[in-house]
Amino acid sequence: MIAVRYCSKSGNTEKVAKMIAEKLGVEAASIEEPLPDKVDKLYLGGAVHGKMYSDLRKYAEKIDPSQVGEVFMFGTSGGAFSIKTEFTKALSKSGVKIGDGSLFLHGFAPKIKADLNDKQIQELTDFVEATK
């Protein structure tokens, strides 16, 4: 089973999560939505606003490796920054396997729900194809 979960304040990461989920043939949900009993692949995303959201960090640190096979990280940001380092640390604390692929899209203005440009859509498509 595949699941997509996200933590989004402005709606940009939610939009990306829903696009990923659509390409995978599943529904995206907030990290507040419990996972099914067993998930082979979890696509987990968040944004950077100075640093990683504490809700996402706590969620990532508590993933049960007996419930989740591997996690693929994705995220959005307004600039060149990424939560990848913080995200990797948090997931490492849980002991869950981190998948080889990740997606961090840049150029999203905070608090403005932006449309993805052609390059970002291609990056998202390539990410899904490489990890599904």
Automatic annotation (TrEMBL):
InterPro entries reported for this sequence: Flavodoxin_dom, Flavoprotein-like_sf
Flavodoxin domain residues: 4-65
Pfam families: Flavodoxin_5 (PF12724)
Superkingdom of this protein's organism: Bacteria
Protein name: Flavodoxin domain-containing protein
Originating species: Ligilactobacillus acidipiscis
